[in-house]
Amino acid sequence: MVKEGEIVWMSALELSKAIRDGELSPVDVVDAFFKRIEKVNPEINAFVTLTEESARREAEAAEKAVKSRKKLGPLHGVPVAIKDNMPVKGVRTTWGSKLYENCVPNEDYVLVERLRSSGAIIMGKTNLPEFGLIGITDNSVFGVTRNPWDKTTTCGGSSGGSAAAVAAGLCPIAVGNDWGGSLRTPASFCGVFGFKPHLGRIPRWPQLSGFETLAVEGPITRTVADAALMLDIMAGPDSRDYLSLPPPGVSYLENLERGIKGKKFAFSPDLGYAIIEPEVEEIARRAAFSFTDLGCVVEEVKLNLIDMGADFVSVEVSNMVAAMGDRMEEWKKVCYKPYLDFL
């Protein structure tokens, strides 16, 4: 039998199998995670809105479906966390902004629809910087999210709440989004796996105006296999997003075992312009060259790329100003105070 303390550290694939095999009840799984959230979340502030009542209802329905031997989805009974800039029907969705502090959408985001259809149970919304604009997770609505490994340090951003929740065992899987590192940075800071797919691989709808050609959605997990499973569920076209791509034509999960022997990789620690801490550089180099153990060819290269950090900030600010329109002055009065330096 699986012990309660072990449940919160199981992967989504492990939980799904245990639920299908009758070794775990979806109700017990949800109970275990909410107990963990009650104990740990006040210290790290990863979840900002919990959907405990609906999650327990869904867990009870999931348990009945197992007992009645109905066809089950690949994430049947598995808890998932949703970043608070992705609409969830009937659940407060704030984008970390005072402007939307009491916003309750009347429709689900596309990937939320697909996760629900797969049997996943939504546990709540996770924190982010206001509108996901910076690389730390703090805002004027919910405050700062702490790194679960060291509460004196940042969890990164902008999907910091999702990364911290997965790392702390508050949920096995979560979703976030990324245009300048918002999946990858918090995942690396929290020691979990964050993957940025191609633009359009996972449809985005409905969404606030701005960043349509920059932002992508993706998974944050503790295992690569869980991320592949989530991609299988979330990827694919949707007519409501004109940038969405055709079906990938493969199963990411089924292709994990294909291997990468013979592949060639180039590694640059600084891209020719970045300032890197020596310890970080050495860790990154070891990680890159570990691919030689898998039969790959890895070559360290010297690049001379242009530092476009300032240009990226200009694009960010321009997008936000355009998206705000006639609400710009209203936003300035309530926005996260450090943003005023750029507005």
Furnish the topology, listing elements before pairings.
Layout lengths: L3 H4 L4 H9 L5 H19 L2 E4 L1 H16 L11 E5 L26 H8 L3 E6 L19 E2 L2 E5 L5 H8 L5 E6 L5 H7 L2 E2 L21 E6 L2 H11 L29 E4 L10 H12 L7 E4 L8 H16 L3 H7 L9
Parallel strand pairs: 2-3, 2-6, 9-10
Antiparallel strand pairs: 1-3, 4-5, 6-8, 7-8
Helix pairs in contact: 3-4, 6-7
Radius of gyration: 20 Å
Strand content: 5-15%
Helix content: 25-40%
Q: CATH superfamily of the largest domain, please? A: Amidase signature (AS) domain
Describe the fold and architecture.
- It is a single chain.
- This protein has 343 residues and is of the alpha/beta class.
- The chain has two domains: 4-258, Amidase signature (AS) domain (Amidase signature (AS) enzymes, Alpha-Beta Complex), CATH 3.90.1300; 259-307, no CATH class.
- Helix content is 34%, strand content 13%.
- The chain has eleven helices and ten strands.
- The strands form three sheets. Strands 1-3-2-6-8-7 form a six-stranded mixed sheet, sandwiched between helices. A two-stranded antiparallel sheet has the order 4-5.
- α9 links the parallel β9 and β10.
- The longest helix is centred in the N-terminal third of the chain and has 19 residues, at 26-44.
- It is globular and about 60 Å long.
